[in-house]
Amino acid sequence: MSADELTRLYDWLIDAPEDAPGVAADLAVERDAALARVRELEALLGESRRSHYYCEDCWYSCPKAPYGCCDDAKGNECDCGADAWNARIASVLVTPEDTP
Ligand SMILES: [Zn+2]
């Protein structure tokens, strides 16, 4: 499911009131369950954000790790994949501002 499709589903889940014409009670129950599931998945995704790799032998740490990297040749960009992973998570979260 693309981020746009997820956004449309999320908007539908949020905006469709239980008593809206065409929204049967059983559909409303399904909607509430789906919305709860989406929120659960969003929370889980938010919690799966990664920190930058740190190693006691700072030569191997990511340049963006809290204590940096001893290998100046690595530059200042993330080389452990945390930035790419966290950007991917942010791209699929419908409401990133609401997640941890
Ligand atoms: Zn990193």
Question: What does this protein structure show overall?
Answer:
With 100 residues, the chain is mainly α. The protein contains three helices and no strands. It folds into two domains: 1-47, no CATH class; 50-93, no CATH class. Bound molecules: zinc ion. Zinc ion binds at residues 52-53, 62, 64, 78, 80, 82-83.
Helix/strand layout:
Blueprint: H1 3-15, H2 25-47, H3 82-92
Bound molecules: zinc ion (ZN).
Characteristics:
100 residues; mainly alpha; binds zinc ion; 2 domains
Name the average pLDDT: 82
Helix count from the secondary structure assignment: 3
Order of helices and strands: HHH
Helix content: 40-55%
Bound molecules: zinc ion
Strand content: under 5%
**What separation lies between the terminal Cα atoms?**
22 Å
Radius of gyration: 20 Å
The low-confidence runs, each spanning 5 or more residues with pLDDT under 50, are: none
Overall SS class: mainly alpha
Main pleated sheet: none
What form results from the Cα inertia axes?
Answer: rod-shaped
As for the number of domains, it is 2
